[in-house]
């Protein structure tokens, strides 16, 4: 489904370009110039050893790509990577301390937002847009601890408006969920304040944005593995990662790439072939990372990629404790804040992906080599 949506988006883009060429569409000269001349020759303004996004000039793909759809697909990918990079430049490592907030307070808020999203059934994308807005606001503005949940409520309202045509939850209902700690007027005022803080520039990529791109690089996926399982695993891991503060410094594209890296590694672990007969095993033939995956994710097999994958792996291991209804330890500093995402993806409408053998049958020893710290 994700690939079909990307292909349709590429075709619409081609029609737009043809319309511009025929002068049938009115478009700003600056926008037309960008569409006409951009070839992917983008360089980061400042060196970042953490989020090392890689893009190659589109001219390099002109001879190997057989369709205009794929070339336009790469234009879309490059644009999303550029937007992703510009967002992470806003990251402020001192955002919580300057507002007298703590990582546990952030984890508690984001865990609550996951439960709100599941209760109202709005898209998970809206949830991630909302959490991104919360982080961006604290990166820029000091926020008193007693108003932190208010920022989350206002972010939910904005996130739903930005991602779905369905009406957002009423302000009265959202305030009720906070035990009427805040009034509807306070939520409206905070929403307006957030809009002005961001200069009404709200749309940035989230990890879900890059799932469709990444699946194109999964050429070695065994035939008996359903792509829906991969997509749901990604979404589950993304939700689990919301409560982990250390992941806030990483770009959305890197989070998606690290999730794919971890899933590829877990697929290799489920093989039960005899040790002497591994040559024909479809799971052992899966490489840890390929040039194709690097090209469609924008990230090579770097230390940062492995570190993020290892962090996600630790969170999945901690969530395994919920399988026996025991209280997890503090392996990643989030504790019980992982419960909301686990319960959400243990339901039938999510194919009970949180209980899938791929994520419940591995141990820390299986991912220890990913730890580069």
From TrEMBL:
Q: Which SMART domains match?
A: CYCLIN
InterPro entries from the UniProt entry = Cyclin (IPR039361), Cyclin-like_dom (IPR013763), Cyclin-like_sf (IPR036915), Cyclin_N (IPR006671)
Annotated SUPFAM superfamilies: Cyclin-like
Where does the record place the Cyclin-like domain? Answer: 111-196
Family matches, as Pfam families:
Cyclin_N
Sorted keywords for this record are: Cyclin
Describe the family membership recorded for this protein in Swiss-Prot or TrEMBL.
Belongs to the cyclin family.
What name is this protein filed under? Cyclin A3 4
**Organism annotation:** Echinococcus granulosus (Hydatid tapeworm)
């Amino acid at each position: 489904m994700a690939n079909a949506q990307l292909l349709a988006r590429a075709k619409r883009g081609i029609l737009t370009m043809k319309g511009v060429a025929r002068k049938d569409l009115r478009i700003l000269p600056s926008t037309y110039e960008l569409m006409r001349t951009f070839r992917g020759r983008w360089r980061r303004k400042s060196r970042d050893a953490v989020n090392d996004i890689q893009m190659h000039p589109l001219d390099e793909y002109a001879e190997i790509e057989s369709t205009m759809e794929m070339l336009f697909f790469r234009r879309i990918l490059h644009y999303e990577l550029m937007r992703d990079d510009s967002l992470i430049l806003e990251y402020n490592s001192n955002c919580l301390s300057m507002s007298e907030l703590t990582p546990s307070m952030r984890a508690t808020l984001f865990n609550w937002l996951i439960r709100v999203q599941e209760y109202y059934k709005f898209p998970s994308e809206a949830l991630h847009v909302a959490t991104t807005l919360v982080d961006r606001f604290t990166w820029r503005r000091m926020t008193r601890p007693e108003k932190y949940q208010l920022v989350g409520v206002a972010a939910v309202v904005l996130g739903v408006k930005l991602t779905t045509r369905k009406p957002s939850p009423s302000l009265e209902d959202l305030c009720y969920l906070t035990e009427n700690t805040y009034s509807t007027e306070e939520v409206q005022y905070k929403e307006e304040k957030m809009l002005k803080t961001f200069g009404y520039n709200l749309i940035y990529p989230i990890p879900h944005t890059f799932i469709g791109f990444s699946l194109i690089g999964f050429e070695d996926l065994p035939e008996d593995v359903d792509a829906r399982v991969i997509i749901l695993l990604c979404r589950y891991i993304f939700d689990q990662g919301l409560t982990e503060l250390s992941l806030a410094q990483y770009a959305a594209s890197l989070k998606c790439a690290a999730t794919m890296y971890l899933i590829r590694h877990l697929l290799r672990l489920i093989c039960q072939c005899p040790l002497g007969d591994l040559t024909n095993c479809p799971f052992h033939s899966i490489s840890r990372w390929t040039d194709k995956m690097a090209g469609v994710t924008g990230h090579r097999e770097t230390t940062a990629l492995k570190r993020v994958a290892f962090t996600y792996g630790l969170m999945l291991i901690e969530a395994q404790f919920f399988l026996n209804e025991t209280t997890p330890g503090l392996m990643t500093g989030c504790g019980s804040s992982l419960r909301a995402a686990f319960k959400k993806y243990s339901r039938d409408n999510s194919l009970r992906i949180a209980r899938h053998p791929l994520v419940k049958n591995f141990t820390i020893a299986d991912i220890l080599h990913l730890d580069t710290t």
